[in-house]
Amino acid sequence: MRAPKFWGTLPGDGCLVKLVLHTRRLFIKVVQMKLSELAEKTGSVIDSGSPDVEINGAAGLDIAVSGDISFLANPKYTPQIADTNASAIILNNDAAITRDDIAVLRASDPYLAYTRTLRLFHPETPIAPSIHSTAVIDPSAEVAENVEIMANVVIGRNCSISSGVKIFPNATIYDAVSIGENSVIHSGVSIRENCVIGRNCTIHNNTTIGSDGFGYAKDEAKRWLKIPQVGRVVLEDDVEIGANSAIDCASVGETRIKRGAKIDNLVQIGHSCTVDEDALICSQTGLAGSSVIGKRVILAGQVGIAGHLTVGDDAVITAKSATSHDIEPGKVISGIPGFDNREWLRSTAAYRRLGEIAQRLKQLEKKVLGGDK
Amino acid sequence: MRAPKFWGTLPGDGCLVKLVLHTRRLFIKVVQMKLSELAEKTGSVIDSGSPDVEINGAAGLDIAVSGDISFLANPKYTPQIADTNASAIILNNDAAITRDDIAVLRASDPYLAYTRTLRLFHPETPIAPSIHSTAVIDPSAEVAENVEIMANVVIGRNCSISSGVKIFPNATIYDAVSIGENSVIHSGVSIRENCVIGRNCTIHNNTTIGSDGFGYAKDEAKRWLKIPQVGRVVLEDDVEIGANSAIDCASVGETRIKRGAKIDNLVQIGHSCTVDEDALICSQTGLAGSSVIGKRVILAGQVGIAGHLTVGDDAVITAKSATSHDIEPGKVISGIPGFDNREWLRSTAAYRRLGEIAQRLKQLEKKVLGGDK
Amino acid sequence: MRAPKFWGTLPGDGCLVKLVLHTRRLFIKVVQMKLSELAEKTGSVIDSGSPDVEINGAAGLDIAVSGDISFLANPKYTPQIADTNASAIILNNDAAITRDDIAVLRASDPYLAYTRTLRLFHPETPIAPSIHSTAVIDPSAEVAENVEIMANVVIGRNCSISSGVKIFPNATIYDAVSIGENSVIHSGVSIRENCVIGRNCTIHNNTTIGSDGFGYAKDEAKRWLKIPQVGRVVLEDDVEIGANSAIDCASVGETRIKRGAKIDNLVQIGHSCTVDEDALICSQTGLAGSSVIGKRVILAGQVGIAGHLTVGDDAVITAKSATSHDIEPGKVISGIPGFDNREWLRSTAAYRRLGEIAQRLKQLEKKVLGGDK
Fold it and tell me: Which sequence positions of C are flagged as catalytic?
C-alpha cells in the first residue's frame, strides 16, 4: 500500500509544487506537471487524454493513485490496467487499451519513459554543504569546499574529496583515497587505502571497497602464507555499488570497475578483476580473482565466476549459474557449470523426470538384453 | 568446551541466583531452579528424579555439565545420552532411557520445552536508560525517555525512537525513521530514510535496511538509467534480521517484512518484496524484486527466488534451490529450477550415475540400431 | 595497468630503499635487493643472470615492469613470459625458458617463493601506538600500552586489548571481548560480547563476529520462539577473516575457528561450528549450525554445508557445491548434493546432452516396444 500524501502549495519555478510525506526525499519540492510537458520530457507522445491533465506522481499500476501516471512494459501485467487508479499510462505503440478514462502516452520503450518520469518527480536531493563537527578529517586530506560530510565520518591522510561529494555518517575513508565529484558514500562504507572512486558514483551502506584479496601460498608445513595485497580498487565514473558488498584490491596492480557498471548488494568481486562498462551484476554474485567481465554483460543473482577467465561483451549468465570457462560475447549461459541457455532448458526439463528416465532405460535393457541386467 | 562458571550467592527473588562468567549476558542474575518449577514453567512433567533437584543451566547433551538440563529432539543423538554429564533431560513421551542417574522430564515437544528452559536461565538484559554523550541526535528527532543509545550512534531528522529501544554503537539512523518499542539495533546497522521498524524487533550488526533497490532502465545508448528508489521498508513487530543482510526499499511503495518473520545473516531482500508472517529465511538466501513469501514459508540456506512471484503459505524450499515460478502453498521444492522434493531426490540419485546412464544408452542403441551409431 | 613508481634514495639498513606511491603501504621504505639476496631469502637458486642484479619489486608476468621479479606457477601462463617486462622470473626446476635477457631463479614451488618475495618488498606497516581522542573506551577495559586505536572506535566493559593490536575507525567491540597480540581489526567490524580473538588475527571491514545464531523453536501457535544465543566465538591465532562476513556465536558453548584458518568475504559461519586448523573457506560459502570443517579443508566459493555434519581433513568441496552428509577425509566433492568430483564431471558432461538423451531413449523405446509409447 502506498504511503498517503499531503498536499500544499508552495512557491515554485513556474509550476505547482507539492510536499510529499513518507517518501525518501522529504521536504523536497516535487514538480506537478502537465501531461504535455511530461510527454515532451520523456520522449513520448499523447495518444489520448487532455494535454493539460495535471500529473502528480508516478507509480506501478497496482499502487498508483489518482493523479499518478503508470506504465505497462510486460504484457503479463495487462490485466492490472482494468483496476489501476492511475490517471495516465505509458504504453508502447502496439498495446491496446479499452479504458477511455485514462490518458495514454505512447513510447517505444515505456519502461524507459516511466523511468524518466520518475526521475522528473524525484530529483536527487542537492547536497547541503557542511562538515559535521564530529567528523575526523586528517589535516593532510584535500577536501573541496562544496561537500557534505556527516557525523563521525573518518577521512585518512592524503585523501582527496572533490566538490559535490556527500558522505553519510560512520563511513571510513582510509589513507590516500580519492573520491570524484558528486559521488555519494553511504553510512558504514569502508574505502581502503589508495582506492580511487570516480565521479557520480554511489556506494551503498556497509559496503567495503579495497579489502585484501584472498591469496595465500601453502608453505612447506602446509600452512597458509599470506600473499601481500598492496594493489588498489578503481571505480570509474557513474558506478553504483549496492549495500554490504565487498570489492577486493589486487595483490599488485588494481581491480577496476569501469564507467557505468552497476553492482547490487552482497556481491563479491575478487582481486584483480575487471568489470567493464555498463555491466550489471546482480545480488549475491561472486567473482573469483583476475576475471574480466565484458561490456554490458548481465550476471543475474547468485552467479559464480571462477578465476582468470573472460566473459565476453553482452553475454548473459542467468541466476544461480556458474562458469569456470571463458564465455563468448553475446551468449546466454545457464547451469553449473554453465552452457547454452536453450540446451540447459531442455536438460532441466528432462532432469525433472530423470528418475523415471533411468527406470525406463533399465526396463529397455531388460527387454533387449534379457533378464541378466 | 563450555566456559567455566563461577558461583556466588546474591539476594534473589525467592530463589538462589548465580553469577555466570563467559556468557553473553554478563553480571546478570541467573535463576537457579528446582526441577518441579522448571517442569511447570516449560509445560513438561517429571517422569523420574526428585522434584527438588536444583538445575543451574541448560545445554546440549554433548556440552552439558553437572547441574544442567539437556534435551533430546532428534533420535540421531540418542547415543549421546549415555555420555552426557547433564543432571536432567527433557524427552518426548515415547523416548526410552536406560540411565537412572538422570532426572527425566517429558514434553510433547522437547525442543520447545528446552527453548523455554534456556529462556528462563538467560532472560534478556534489561536496558540501562541513557544516551551517550557522543551520540549525534538531530534536535527534530522524538526520542522517548526510556531508551539506551550508545556511543557514536547517529540519528537523523524527524526520527521517532520509542521507549525501551536499545541502539548499539556506530549505528546510523537516517532521516524520518521510526523505531518501535523495545527494539534492538546492533552496531554498524544502517537504517535508511523513512523506514519503519516495529516493536520488539532485533536487527543484528552491519545490516542495511532500506538501501536503494537495484533498478535501471537501458537508454538509447545502452547505458543504465537509474530508476529512483524512493519507497521505504517496513518491519512489523517481532521481526529479527541477522547480521550483514540487506533489505532494499521499494522504488515507489514499500518492502514489507510482516509480524514474526525471521531473517538470517547475509540475506538479500529485493525491492517491493513482501515476507509474510512467521516466514523463516535462512542465510545467504536472495529474493529478487516484488516477490511475495507466504506465511510460515521456510527458505533454507542459499535459496534464490526470482522476481514477481509468489511462494504460497507453508511452502518449504530446500537449501541451494531456486524458483522462477510461483510455488503452491505447502509444497516442498528442491533444485535449480525447483520442483517437487521427492521427484528431485529421485533425480539427484540418478544424476550421480548419469555418465554411466548415457553410456548404457549408447550400448543399447548399438545393440538395437546396429553399429551405425 | 600498474601504478607508476617514483623513486628516491633514503638512508636504509645497509641497502637501498625507495618510496612507492600508489601502493597500499604508503611512505614505507621498501627494500631494494640484489638477486642473490632474494634467492637466499626465498629458498630459491640462481639459474641464470647476475647475482648483483637489483630487484625493486614483484608482480605478475602481465603487469611486471623493468626491475621487477615475476613468477610462473601455472603452465597456462607460459606465453606471457615472451612479453613480460620483468627483469627476473622464478620458475620451477623443470620449466624451460628461451629468453636470455631475464634472470632466472629456480624454486621447487615458484608460487611460494614469489609470495616470500612479495612479503620482503611489502612488509607489514608497524603500528603507530596511539589512542585517538574520539575513541570511546570503557574504563574497565584493559588496554595494553602499545596499541593503535583509531577514531570513533568503541570498546566495551571488561575488554582486554593486547599489545600490538590495531583497531581501525568506527569498529565496535562489545563487552568482555579479548583481542590477542598484534591482531588487526578493520573499520566497521563488530565483535560481540565475550568473543575471543587470538594473536596475529586480521578481521576485514564490516565483518561481524559473534552475532546471534539463527535458532528458533516453533510454539503451539506456529510462531517462532527465539532460542537464546549466549555462547561465544573464539578465533585462535593466525586466523584471517575477510570483509562483510558473519560468524555466529553458539547458543550455549562456542563457535571456534582454529589456528591458521582463513575465511574470505561474505562467508556465513553458523552457530557452534568448528573450523579446524589451516582450513580455507572461500567467498560466499555458508555453514549451517554445528558442523565441523576439518584441517586443511578447502571450501571453494559459494559452497553450502548443512548442519551437524563433518567434513574430514584435507577434503575439497568445489565451487557452488553443497553437502548434507559427512565427507570423508581427502575426498574431492562436487555437485548439489555433492559426490565424487570425477563422477560429477562425467555427469555434468552428460547433463549438457540430457534433452537429447531423453529423446534418444524415447526413439529406442519406440523401436523396441513398438509405436505405443
Answer: 271
